[in-house]
Amino acid sequence: MSTGPLVHRNLTVTSRTAREVAGFLTDGLLTVDTPYQRTSVWTLDQRRNLIRSWLLGVPIPAVLVNDRSAGPWTRATGRPDDHSPVLAAIDGRQRIETAAMWFGNELSVPARWFPADDLTILYGVARDTAYYCDLTRAGRSTMALSRAFLPLAEAQLATLAEEAEVYLLVNSAGTSQTPEDLARAAAIAGKDVRP
């Protein structure tokens, strides 16, 4: 805890494509394995609902990362070696992993979510689910460039403790939704909570 005045942290927020952020992870530029983050906990339905949100145009909360190649981190901990990720996920691990799974063809969603013209498979005939690779070239382009976005808020924090402090602030504000809250909304929406 700080004993003096709070120091304002400038986080730069940019709108990135989810494919770009997923690429940071798959290319080794970003780590999601920070010690204060929870492990991979999203269910298949939760991961599919992220893809569904992109398709519906529902805004996705910003992913928070720390730029560990920036001045404050390198002054406090030394310059990272060439094999160290330059970005560390403070918050958003599940969203980043889901994006990497989708664009890496490791996650399928109901094929009926896409117009038939966007699919190289016929749903109901071949199979009921589709992977990113099952989209036509135009469908993949639309998904990657104009549907799936992950806002990215970049910090320049000096230490792991500062990263953990931001994680705590982001994840301890508010009250979690209860199963009853979600069931009530699902009843009003006229459907089960699952996709």
Count the E strands.
7
Terminus-to-terminus distance? 42 Å
Computed CA radius of gyration, to the nearest angstrom:
19 Å
- The chain-level structural class is alpha/beta
What string gives the helices and strands in order?
EHEHEHEHEEHEHH
For this entry, give a set of tags.
alpha/beta, 7 strands, globular, two-stranded antiparallel sheet, 195 residues, single chain
Spell out the blueprint of helices and strands:
Layout (H helix, E strand, L loop, with lengths): L11 E6 H9 L3 E2 L12 H13 L6 E5 L3 H7 L9 E5 L1 H11 L5 E2 L18 E2 L6 H11 L1 E7 L4 H13 L6 H11 L6
Parallel strand pairs: 2-4, 3-7
Antiparallel strand pairs: 1-7, 3-4, 5-6
Helix pairs in contact: 1-4, 2-4
Question: What would you say this structure looks like, in words?
Answer:
The protein has 195 residues and is α/β, with parallel strands linked by helices. The chain has one domain. The chain contains 7 helices and 7 strands. The protein has helices at residues 18-26, 44-56, 71-77, 93-103, 137-147, 160-172, 179-189; strands at residues 12-17, 30-31, 63-67, 87-91, 109-110, 129-130, 149-155. Strands 1-7-3-4-2 form a 5-stranded mixed beta sheet. Strands 5-6 form a two-stranded antiparallel sheet. It is globular.
Characterize this entry briefly.
With 195 residues, this protein is α/β, with parallel strands linked by helices.
